[in-house]
Write a structure and sequence with these properties.
The complex is a heterodimer. Chain A is 0% helix and 38% strand. By secondary structure, chain A is mainly β. Chain A has one domain: Methylamine Dehydrogenase, Chain H (7 Propeller), CATH 2.130.10.10. In chain A, strand 2 and strand 3 form a beta hairpin. Chain A is globular, with a radius of gyration of 20 Å. Chain B has one domain: Beta-grasp domain (Ubiquitin-like (UB roll)), CATH 3.10.20. Chain B contains 3 helices and 5 strands. A 5-stranded mixed β-sheet of chain B has the order 2-1-5-3-4, with helices on one face. Classes of the chains: A mainly beta, B alpha+beta. Chains A and B meet through strand 6 of A and helix 1 and helix 2 of B.
Chain lengths: 395, 101
């Protein structure tokens, strides 16, 4: 019988939730890395037991962790537990947390500054990894979206990281500036039909696409309209919160922007607003049903000044028409006195039939719907604030 | 000349390095913050970047270095450590700032 494994990153550690295909009874393991901020965990689609995790701390910085046994044990790539920490020739293996911006002339313009909050130029400073995206074909290859915004790639299982510097080298780099959460590259989408194409999104620069495997990038923000920037239709500067794609239609993208839910039918070349009848179109998460590419999910949040659900009601909104027409999904979710947020990487879908939808809240609940959103129940209620949720579906 | 320097790490770094209690390090040449941290990172590479920046080698902002009831955080990384640390009477402490929730 099928199994699901839900990988939960929280402010104070990681948790692994497991169930069978019914998704009714759950096992909970954790906290892993207790006390650390776990920004994201994600498994390799080709080797589900290979899981990458971003472990961060304001005190101690960035650590990359890896599991090769489905989350039971972990190690920092290059320094396996219990094994020598140096190679036979004496070189250290512990390089897995080294993210150094590329400053070489060959691989991109060696950008060193971006726009700071006060309008002055500020040096790029590595802070943390927000998102890890394992390759669709090679378990040793994984991409990392980092703050300050850049994309890195490892081809040796997370041990060594190289920046794809063409992104920061895009001419607009000096105009990028941080959103309230920092200048983070938080979304990486690999096109299953075209290995040369990758989409990324940055707060608050916008969305970008490469069609040559990461060498060169172009902004894909036409149609976005943001009142909070000086030129509302600018090429860059939009606070994109998250982007989602259905693997069967890689040219169709759905976006939750700071305000506005958007869709593109041409790989991001242009966007149309599809907020429709949502009670508020501010929010962070957006995701697509595993089997119905026109069925999408968001969790509306009251406003940028009030990061909680409106009216004290936790409601997931589902559109079966690719946007514009939305229905509230409330069965099993608190409908009074609820003031949680759902952060940008904290929703995921499994690939069972019926499709399971999962999301985590800043109040520490992780909810599951085993019927595509019609009804919900909490898997856990009292974790630390949830930063990210991913799910793995296994035979 | 080799000295044995005692180092006390904050709990999260002891967990990362998979050590309990204090760490004893063989440090070649003059014992300084730099030589002690070099020896620490050579023996426990998983700690690279957690105490000082991988590139700039600057102390991370929320960490401090104490020894002999003194704050050495603003001393030169190449200044000699106190004699009591060098002769093993006192440990070199890496302390996490009390902040956050």
């Amino acid at each position: 019988m099928s199994k699901v494994r839900v990988l939960v990153g929280t402010r104070k550690g990681a948790f692994v939730l497991t169930s069978d295909g019914k998704r009714e009874k759950w096992g909970v393991s954790g906290p892993h890395f207790a006390g650390w901020e776990m920004y994201h965990l994600k498994g390799s689609p080709v080797d589900p037991n290979r899981i990458y995790a971003s472990q961060t701390s304001g005190w101690f910085g960035q650590i990359i962790q890896r599991s090769d046994d489905g989350g039971k044990t972990w190690h920092q790539p290059g320094t396996p537990a219990g094994q020598p920490t140096t190679t036979p020739d004496g070189m250290s293996k512990g390089e897995s947390n080294k993210f150094v911006y590329d400053a070489s002339a060959e691989t991109g313009k060696p950008l060193t500054t971006h726009q700071w909050y006060d309008g002055t130029q500020h040096p790029w400073e590595f802070k943390r990894v927000w998102h890890l995206e394992p390759s669709l074909t090679d378990p040793e290859t994984v991409y990392a979206g980092v703050e300050d915004a850049a994309i890195f790639r490892s081809t040796d299982g997370g041990q060594n990281w190289q920046e794809l510097a063409g992104l920061r080298g895009h001419g607009s780099g000096p105009k990028w500036q941080p959103g309230a959460g920092g200048m983070c590259l938080h979304t990486i989408i690999l096109d299953p039909s075209n290995p040369q194409r990758i989409y990324i999104a940055i707060s608050a620069a916008g969305a970008f696409r490469t069609d040559d495997g990461g060498k060169t990038w172009k902004p894909i923000n036409r149609g976005l309209h943001s009142q909070y920037i000086p030129a509302p239709n600018a090429e860059v500067g939009h606070c994109v919160h998250h982007v989602a794609m259905h693997r069967s239609r890689p040219n169709v993208l759905f976006m939750q922007k700071h305000w506005d839910v958007m869709r593109s039918d041409n790989a991001g070349d242009s966007w149309q607003e599809v907020s429709g009848n949502l009670p508020t179109d501010f929010g962070f998460v957006i995701d697509v049903h595993a089997h119905e590419p026109e069925t999408i999910y968001v969790v509306p949040i009251k406003s940028d000044g009030e990061h909680f659900v409106p009216d004290g009601k936790l409601r997931v909104y589902r559109s079966r028409t690719g946007g514009n027409e939305w229905e509230a999904l409330t069965k099993g979710l608190p409908q009074s006195d609820c003031y949680v947020n759902v952060l940008r990487d904290a929703m995921a879908v499994d690939s069972l039939d019926k499709c399971g939808i999962y999301f985590g809240t800043t109040g520490g609940q992780v909810y599951v719907s085993a019927d595509a959103g019609d009804s919900w129940s909490p898997i856990v209620r009292d974790l630390p604030a949830v930063l990210s949720v991913e799910v793995q579906t296994m035979p | 000349m080799t000295q044995v320097i005692r180092v006390i790490l904050p709990q999260h770094l002891r967990t990362l390095a998979q050590v309990k209690g204090e760490v004893e390090l063989d440090v070649e040449g003059p014992a300084t913050q730099r030589s002690v941290l070099d020896a620490l990172e050579a023996r426990y590479p998983m700690l690279r970047g957690t105490i000082r920046d991988q590139v700039t080698q600057q102390r991370r902002p929320f960490l401090r270095f104490f020894a002999c009831e003194e704050d050495l955080s603003h001393e030169s990384p190449d200044a000699p450590l106190p004699e009591a640390v060098v002769n093993g009477t006192e440990p070199f402490l890496v302390i996490g700032a009390i902040a956050g929730g």
